[in-house]
Amino acid sequence: MTSAREDILKGIRGALKRGPLDATQQSALATRVPAHTRPAIDEDAVERFVRKFESRAGTVARVATLRNVPAAVEAYREAQGLPQRAAVGAGLKSLRWAKGWEVHHGAAGSDEALAVSPALAGIAETGSLLLASGPDSPTTHNFVPDDHVVVLEAKQIVMHFEEAWAMLRARPEGIARATNIISGPSRTADVEQTIQLGAHGPRRVHVILVG
Amino acid sequence: MEIRSNEFKGRAVFAIHDASLQQALGKAREGFVGKRAQQAAELPEFEQLREEAKALKNHILDHLDHYLERYEQAVTAAGGQVHWARDAEEARTIILGICKRVGAKTVTKGKSMVSEEIGLNEALIDEGMEVVETDLGEYIIQLAHEPPSHIIAPAVHKTKDQVSDLFEAAHGGPRKTTVPELVDEARRMLRDKYFRADVGITGGNFLVAETGSSMIVTNEGNGDLTQTLAKVHIVTSGIERVVPTLDDATLFLRLLARSATGQETETYTTLSTGPRRADDLDGPEEYHVVLVDNGRSRMLAGRFREMLRCIRCGACMNHCPVYGAVGGHAYGWVYPGPMGSVLTPLITGLDNAYDLPNACTLNGRCASVCPVKIPLPDLLRELRHMQHQQEITPAMQRRALKLWRFAATQPRLYHAGERIAARLLAAIGRKGRIRRLPLASAWTDVRDLPAPAGRTFLELWQGKRGKS
Amino acid sequence: MLTMSRYPNESMGTDMPETAKNGPRVGLFATCLMNVFRPNIGFAAVKLLEDAGCTVEVPDSQTCCGQPGYNSGDFDAARALARQVIATFEHFDYVVGPSGSCMATIRHDYPALFEGDPDWAPRAEALSRKSFELLSFLHDELGVTQAQARLDAVATYHDSCSGLRGLGIKGQPRALLAGVEGLKLKEMQDAEVCCGFGGTFCVKYPEISEKMVDDKIRNVLATGADTLLGGDLGCLMNIAGRLKRINAPVKVFHTAEVLAGLAGGGGIASEPGETR
């Protein structure tokens, strides 16, 4: 009995009326460089990122340096009426938190209210954040808490998706297990097309833009 | 899933008279169509992207074996496992096998049309597992024990009141009546399931050969919770969903959300590449991909290869006036609307879905919005051709066509017939119209038939200008 | 009378036929429905074409374009009819018909039907290139910009699907109608959505068709227009028949009738003398 794999590949080749591709053809495909049209954008990348992200109910606060981040998180926490407790990605370990804050770097548990994550990139085209999973940025931080704060440096903002992929490829660890592109708070329109935020993921996503 | 596509006519009539359904469909029509048009208008490159997406899909399909092998290699290198399933049964067996091996009790699911296609839920439930749909729309219809009526908005046929009733029955009171309350209640109910799940099953919008990643595009974040918190993540996807590189996937991403929900982008686009890594703090311990053929490699052979370009955005049904009139359930299987009317007979058999290719006015609105330019009306007509050739078409219709051909290929006979018809109908007509005509009751049950004046144009022309 | 911005058209270019010095020789495609139900549209078409300088002939060896067979999946029957149409009309400079649906069949479907046929494919393609729906022919090929006619009415225009999506007919009828004295055009919502006719569809699935035509009529009535115009008699018969059935006071005409100044009486599905 042939395996399903062999059968399916045989079926495909039969339908295409050819055998397996030879080495030359395969290497031609391996070196193929896609050059699809990218939307032309005539706008400053940072401005566009902010404008687009905010258009989908995301919020943005801007600070001068990384050292200002804990204060910005504190301001956000206070405005939302949250306790001084957060799951913080280890990528932000160097941040110094004020007295009273309880911070851990583990995965987010079911009672986690607030997470603070480092972004790998911002994509101006759609106003989206790109987060790569790993010990520095566990995936649960992005989806479990009601409030998600993401720290993004202005210099990390690229114009198009393709540039963000290039950043991902250039990492020593390569593609992350989970690469999350996040364009605002969780939403649904499954009841009568009415948009409702906070379907399953965070109800609020707040970007602290550094620089 | 049981195929009830041959009940189309009856189910369509029922749907037209279902007031709640019509109310829900009306709302959906307004929303989707307007938002998509706005997105298309706001992106000057939109039409160019459609052309490129069509060309790229054709390239992928021409080299499908190659890209699937590359994809498999990359998944394996990332520590995941690829399974191949020739048909629905094989796919179910593979997934059941994984679930049983890990002793799964609770299985959470993100939205996956392939899992509907292979009838996965029933199989898991039959083995005693708790299956929880986590997409809000899917959750609603799971409570209602119904199949999805739309490929991206599965509960689009439900009104808010109906959702309130379903939630009250399932969760107990007090009855929630506003959208925020309903969404909150579902959020609360499902939270615990994500954390308890042994296996999380999602679909895959794209499978990236370059990186061995599966990609899902969602708004709710349920797919991410499903695949991050379960011990085992299983992706189900059709073999045609592979793309060569991340840059190639991007081309489709730029079209998908705009075409589907009329958004510039959906909230979450997620790439999943293998299981939890040594230093990861979360993520599934196992990562599996089940590649489902189920008729797709057969489609690749002929005219219907174009259908394999489909990226499941739902724009065709959002713009289909027949879908808009009858909703998705009338189509009787998993995929409704124009794309479903092509896929259903091809996957389940021509004689299992006679009406689907026929219940279409060939108005072409679907093709005009398809992001990958599938000529849906042509494919539907091709299916009619196959039905005709295989004599699945009713004998009455075949006889009528023969008679019509016989007459129409003999101009003198045909014109004589037309003259008789013009006179006869003129004689029956009152005030320029005919209210009832026994042999044409399908017309006159709905509308008056304009009565001719008595003489045909050709007659009158020849009277005026002589023969030519 | 017609006003033309340019004539003869550049697109007639180098292979401009002999007869063009007297205006092109046009074979009128007399559609089945027009022939039986509304000869007035045929005379309107002839008038518009002659006013634009064409020599019009109506060959009597024509019958049907074959679309009913094609859309029912009987491709052999469609080919038989297509061969007849090709043989009948290929000697004309142009084939013009007052229907987007029939003319789209000739333009798009004939080449597809004969794909790979060494004898018929070139003939199908040659005919396809010179086949036009009436208004797009007048406007795009002959450069007609204005028809001099008068109709005191508030009208709304239904875009028939095959003309709209198959032949790109959208602006031409509106541009020409804009020149009709006394006529005010009011766009309806979803003007581009199918009316539910669809050839045999409307009798195979009458309930769905009824729902669709009712949606169309709701949009027509919402404009407050007293007249509905369109370019395909099938759709117009469907909408007019339903309007009559529900006693809605909206007259229905083919656009060509209006442009030719032949839109008298009550319109489609009314007595010639009827005024409502």
Q: How would you concisely characterize the structure shown here?
A:
The complex is a heterotrimer of chains A (211), B (468) and C (276). Chain B has 468 residues and is of the alpha/beta class.
User: Helix amount of chain A, in percent?
Assistant: 25-40%
Q: Per the principal axes of the C-alpha atoms, what is the gross shape of chain C? A: globular
Beta-strand content bin of chain A: 15-25%
SSE arrangement of chain A, N to C: HHHEHEEEEEHEEHEEEE
Mean pLDDT of chain C: 92
Can you write the helix and strand succession of chain C as a string? EEHHEHHEHHEHEEHHEHHEHEH
Largest sheet of chain C: 4 strands, parallel
Tally of contiguous helical segments of chain C: 13
How many E strands of chain C? Answer: 10
Number of domains of chain A: 1
- Helicity level of chain C, as a percent range? 40-55%
Which pair of chains forms the biggest interface, and how many residues does each contribute? A-B, 73 and 98 residues
Shape of chain A from CA axes? elongated
Oligomer: heterotrimer
What is the strand content of chain C? 15-25%
Helix/strand class of chain A: alpha/beta
Describe this structure in words.
By secondary structure, chain A is of the alpha/beta class. Chain A contains 6 helices and 12 strands. Chain A has helices spanning 4-16, 23-30, 45-55, 69-80, 140-143, 161-170, and strands at residues 59-63, 85-88, 102-104, 114-118, 121-123, 128-132, 147-153, 157-158, 178-182, 187-188, 196-197, 204-210. In chain A, the strands form 3 sheets. A 6-stranded parallel β-sheet of chain A has the order 1-12-7-4-2-3, sandwiched between helices. In chain A, strands 8-5-6-9 form a 4-stranded mixed β-sheet, with helices on both faces. In chain A, strands 10-11 form a two-stranded antiparallel sheet. The N and C termini of chain A lie far apart (63 Å). In chain B, 60% of the residues are buried. In chain B, the strands form 3 sheets. Chain B has a 6-stranded parallel β-sheet with strand order 1-10-7-4-2-3, sandwiched between helices. Chain B has a 4-stranded mixed β-sheet with strand order 8-5-6-9, sandwiched between helices. In chain B, helix 3 crosses helix 12, helix 9 packs across helix 10 and helix 16 (337-348) packs parallel to helix 19 (376-389). The model of chain B has no long low-confidence stretch (mean pLDDT 96). Chain B is α/β, with parallel strands linked by helices. Chain B is globular and about 90 Å long. Chain C has helices at residues 32-37, 39-51, 67-71, 75-89, 100-113, 120-129, 134-141, 161-167, 171-177, 201-204, 206-222, 233-245, 255-259, and strands at 2-4, 25-28, 55-57, 94-97, 131-133, 144-147, 150-157, 181-185, 227-230, 251-254. The model of chain C is unreliable at 6-20 (pLDDT under 50). Chains in contact: A-B, B-C. Chains A and B meet through helix 1, helix 2, helix 5, helix 6 and strand 9 of A and helix 2, helix 3, helix 4, strand 1 and helix 8 of B.
